[in-house]
Structure formats: C-alpha cells, structure tokens
Amino acid sequence: MSFSIESKIIEPYLVLSQSLAPLRLSRWQMFKLVVRAILYSTLPRVFLFGTFLSLIVYGLSRKIWGRQKREPDHGLPIVQRNDYHFDTIIAEGKQQYPNKPFMAINKRYRFVIYPVGSWDEFKRIPEQTASVMSFQHVCNSGNWSLVGGETHELVKTITAELTRSLPARVPNRQEDAKITFDTIIGHCSEEKGFNLLMTSLEIIAKINACTFVGRELGRNQRWVKAVIYSPLFVYMAVTLLNATPGILRPLLRPLYFLPVLKNYWDMKRLLKPKLDKDIETFKGASDKRKLLVPKPDEDLPFTQFLLSRYTEAAATIKQLVTDYIQVSYTSTPTTASALYHALWELAQNPEAADVLRQELKEVMIDGKLPRTHLQELKRMDSFLRESFRLHPITRFTLQRYVKEPFQLCDGSTIPPGVMAVVDAQEINRSPELWENPDKFDMDRFYRLRELSGNDNRYHFVTTSSNSPGWGDGTQACPGRFFATSTLKIVMAHVVMNYDIRLSKTAPLKSTPLVNGSYAPDNSVEILFKSRSSK
C-alpha cells in the first residue's frame, strides 16, 4: 500500500477546488476540506494497520519476554490443564502429589493449593504478609469493582457493632422477613412455582437491605435490583477482561466495567439523601453514644456506626457510599447461595420440616423468635451447617494473596504475587471426618454438639479445620454471625408458613467456575403452598 503525494493530496485538492469553485471558499476553508477528505480516505486503513501491528508486537513480546514476566520460581510442581474450572486439575494434583503443595493452573488462574495439614500454620499468617481481601481484590479487579477494598473501619463495624446489635434486632428482622415473603411469595392457596435462585437472591437482598439502609430504601425495588445485579455485573466484567489479551485490557477495561460503574452511580444517587440526613444527625448530636444504641422501632444506625470509627476527614460521602456498596455486595450472593441450597435440601427432605417446626414451636412465644443469636435452634443450626458443608459457594478456603515472601514448615517458600488457597472440598467430603460424607444428614452436627464437652463446637458459625466455609483465624468472615441470623429467621418463616417441594426431582447440578467458585443451577423451580393457620 503506497502513499502517493500526487494521488492523496494534489489530486483531491484540484478536484475539490474545481468542484467547489462556485461556493467561493477561502483558502483556509478549502484546506480544512482537503484535510478531512484525506483523513476519511486513509484512517480506516491506518487503524487496521495499527491494530495489526499492535497484535504482532504483543505476540512478539509474549514470545521474547513472556518468561521474564512469569512469577518467581517457587519450587513447586505444576499441574496445568486448559480447563475453565479447577476440579480435574486438583484431582490430578492430589493424586500425583499427595499431602504436598502444588501449583494449579487453569485457563485463567493459577493458585498454589496447600494440603489441609497446613491449616493451623496457614491461618496464622498475618494479613500484612498474605491477605484474603487482597485475594478478592486481585481476582475481581478491585480498583474498578471495589471488591476486596474494605477498610478496617468497615470490617470492625461488621465484627463488633453489627454483631452486637443482632439479638435486639430479631423482632424487626422477623417482621422484615414477613413483609418480604408477602411481597415476593404471597399467600399460595395452591402450589405456586418460583425460580429458586432468583427468589433466594431477592429475599436476601430485601431483608439485608432493610437492615443496612433502612426499610424505606431497603424496600425500594431500584435499590434491590442494583444490589442483585452488582455481583453479576462484576463477574461478567472480570470474565470478559480475563479473556482479553493483556495489551488490549487498558483500552477495554472501562467498557467492560461500564455496567458496574453505572450500577454504582445509581446506588449512590439512591443513598445520598439518606447519608446526608445521617451525617447531619450525627454532627448535631450532643451525645453521640446514644445514637449508637439500636432502638426497637427505628432503623439500625449503620451510618452512625461507621461515622464513630472514621476520622472526620475520612468520613466522606464517597467513602460511606463505597462502604454500603461493599457490604451489600459481600452479604447478598453468599447468603443467597446458602439459602438456595438450604431450601433445596428442605424440599428434598420433607421430614426435616416437621423436626424444625417442632423445635421452633418450643422456642417461639406467640410466633416471635427470642432476642438472642438464635443458638437455641440447634436442629436448624445443624441443618444449615450440613447444607453448607455439601454445597459451599467455592471449593477453596483460606484464600490469600501473598504480599511478602514466607516459608512454611514443609520448606516451601512462597514469593510475593502468588495466590494461595486450601482445598475446602478435601474437608467437606472427607470420609475420615464424616460418616457417609456425600449424604445429607440434618442431625450430623446436632449429635456432635450433644456429646459431652462439645457445647461450643460444631456450630454453624464455628471456624476450625473441620469447618472451612467461613475461613479461620483473624481473617475469618466478619459477617458470619449476621448471615447465620438472617438464614435462621428466613428458614423459620418458611417452615412455619409454607410447605415446599421441587417441581422436578433431580440431582442438583452446580457449575464449577474458572475462579474456583460454584454457580447454582438456575433452572430449579420450587413450589410454595401456604400452610393452614390452624
């Protein structure tokens, strides 16, 4: 393709000057027309040539310098497959390297898989050395998605103030559950079908929103939809980004995350009036400590909890909006997944409903749950933990992004930049730990708790080497008490007010995803029928 001055500049000028002579254009106007004509005729080819050249440069750079950009040598064996999940890779790795760490690499991610024997040592690694939030931040493009960027003030608020408020908030949240079910499910004199996944998401999104942002905004359908769509948009953006060649990611990243950012802008617009009012109330209070005491007939003062921990300079609208987005993001999909699987197991095991209903009748007074952390519901606690054991949201636990190099007692040294995990399925499905590990047994943990000395063990919220779902150590899930309370309140409402069953009896099919998590089966339909009030 030659670029001729005569054909590209002189000829267009002569043609234009003769054609446009009657218009009597100035030389400057004529010059602009010529330039525009040249650009329109050459830009498409220049763009194609530039794109082609960029791809060649990218390919050569991968060929020449690719090895230099790989992570430092960790001395571990590598198991690699061109799969979009980790299940086969980990099965092969454990067969080849039993009880030893190895590097597992699939189509998009590379994780160091540590054996369960490293649990106690692994959980004690300090956050500044290896962080679970940094793991989530890296896996989910946290600078754009906000995932994994939670401040210590937010984490402490969830761990302390939110958890302490739960007993007093049980009546409010029980009322929230009733209104939510009346809105979504309603009274079903005959069996009525619902998509189990989307129904679980909407139920949890609404009930949690009433706690965090108050009942007025929490029942606003625009807010609820934004909360539900948030993790879906992030997952789609991250998936597209991971499939894009590295050289094009800076260019396409804003496009991929545009739905995420638009969703966050909508959430900010809905939140701002509430936050402005909360900040004004907090600043004008003579005794701010009184604002931090939850009141039975008022919304939870979550904004005030945050303001009491931040410095005045740090407590900006932007920071508070980010906190609300993050707490909504982290609390909704995980709890909804747990509810999805608990309802599926309840529908599969109708005899369990009678057991749970009897336990609730013994604990409830006039249909009201006690103002506690609901540990009295031992059979339900065991039911939820067993469902959580069989149906985790991800196959990995103790997920860490390594910031500083460290060495474990097995002699392996992990360099910075590596993502390390422990395989939770090795615990959840262990025949050495559990009898008939692939079978659902609602009383499995109830029986263990009844043994002498086990009063404080085998709870749903327990963190230990035989309970991997919440993580462990100082970086365990800070919201596990809130999630447990939510699930028990929701399950209590279902058991006391509905009979449920699946429209089709079939094994549950969860899809393993490229990052190690599991996607629930979106085709499952559940049938609700209201119970007699007698």
From TrEMBL:
Keyword Heme on entry: yes
Transmembrane annotation, as ranges: 37-60, 223-241
Binding positions (heme): C477
Entry keyword annotation includes ATP-binding: no
Membrane topology designation: Single-pass membrane protein
GO function terms (MF aspect): heme binding; iron ion binding; monooxygenase activity; oxidoreductase activity, acting on paired donors, with incorporation or reduction of molecular oxygen
PANTHER family: CYTOCHROME P450, CYTOCHROME P450 MONOOXYGENASE AN1598-RELATED
Name of this chain's protein: Cytochrome P450 oxidoreductase
Organism, as annotated: Colletotrichum tofieldiae
